[in-house]
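=== RUN LOG ===
request id: a7f3
mode: sequence -> structure
chains: 1
length: 102
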Amino acid sequence: MYETFTAAILPGQTLRGEEIFVCYSQGAWRHFSIFLALLQVLMGAYLIWHALQWLGYVRRRLKLGPWLYAPKAAVLCPCKGVEPGLERNLVSLTEFERQAEL
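=== RESULT ===
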């Protein structure tokens, strides 16, 4: 019914050598450490859940086969002025087919 209050007064010193006393409640530290432990357990469960989702995604992608893997690519082609055959060269850069590596 009544909660007891347990505290400790500890002597200490500042950097200049002045004596100070620090008071802290053991009950508050106990509640805070329980909160931190519960938070760590919940975050661990959350990370395991997302790791299992990622593993499922990887397994689904591996079942599809390498021929469906077509990553996007950026092709940079520096151009200066107009040269003969420029349009044909630029179109050829966009029409090449990537060969699947087996």
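=== NOTES ===
The chain has a mean pLDDT of 77.
The first strand starts at residue 7 and ends at 13.
=== END ===
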